[in-house]
User: Fold this.
Amino acid sequence: MQNIIEALNWRYAVKRYKITSIPEVELEQIMETIRLTPTSLGLQPFKVIRIESPEKREEIKSIFNNQPQSVEASHILVFAAFTELTDSQIDEYINRISQTRNKPIQELEGFKRNIHNFTKSMSATEFIDWAKKQTYIALGMAMSSAAMLRVDSTPMEGFKHDLLDDYLNLSAQKLTSSVVLAIGKRDSAIDILASAPKVRKTADEMFEVI
Ligand SMILES: Cc1cc2nc3c(=O)[nH]c(=O)nc-3n(C[C@H](O)[C@H](O)[C@H](O)COP(=O)(O)O)c2cc1C
Assistant:
C-alpha cells in the first residue's frame, strides 16, 4: 500500500497549475471519496458542484480574487452546504436506510426522532455552521485521496461567498458555498511553492498525552 505520510508530504496547496485535465478515472476516485465521506448522523448535508467549463471559470475568476488556480486547475469543486433540512429530506434518508439495509421503517422511528430533535434544536445559523463542518470532512478526505493518486489540489476559502452563491444560484436550492477545492497538475516551473519545505508545528507542540 502507498504510504499516506509520503503522499501528505508530497502534496502542498498548489498556486499554479498546468492547463490540462486530470484523467477521468482519477477524478472519479476523488468524487467517490467525497461520496463515501462520513457525516454527522449520516445526513450528508451538502452538494458538490464541479465547475469544468473554461468560460465559466473565467467568469468567476474575480469571485476567487483572481487566484490563478481558479482558472488554471483541471477542475473546481464547490462544496455547498444545506441551509436547511426539510422533513421530506429526513424521510428520504430514513427510506434509504430502510431499503439499503432491509429494515422496516418502524424500527427507524427512534432514529428519525433523534434526527428531528437534533436538527430542529439548532438556530438557522447553527444549522449552517454544522452543515459546513461536514463539508470540511469531505474536503480533507478529498485532499488525502487526491494526494494518494498524486493529483494536486488547493483548498480555498479565499473567495466571495455571496457572489459565488449568486453565480451558482445556490440560495434557491437552499444551499450556500462553504469551501472550494481546486484539483489538477502542479506547474513546478512557475509555482514558487512547489519546492518550498513544509511548515508545520512539531509533534511535541501539537500533541499532548494525558
Ligand atoms: C480551509 C482552507 C482554506 C484555504 N484557502 C486558501 C485559498 O483561498 N488560497 C490559497 O492559495 N490557499 C488556501 N489554503 C492553503 C493554505 O494556505 C495551506 O494549506 C497552508 O498554508 C499549509 O500549506 P500546504 O497545504 O502547502 O502544506 C487554504 C487551506 C485550507 C485548509
Notes: Residues 12-13, 15, 67, 154-158, 179, 198 surround flavin mononucleotide (CB under 6 Å). The mean pLDDT is 97. The two ends are 32 Å apart (CA to CA). The first strand starts at residue 17 and ends at 18.
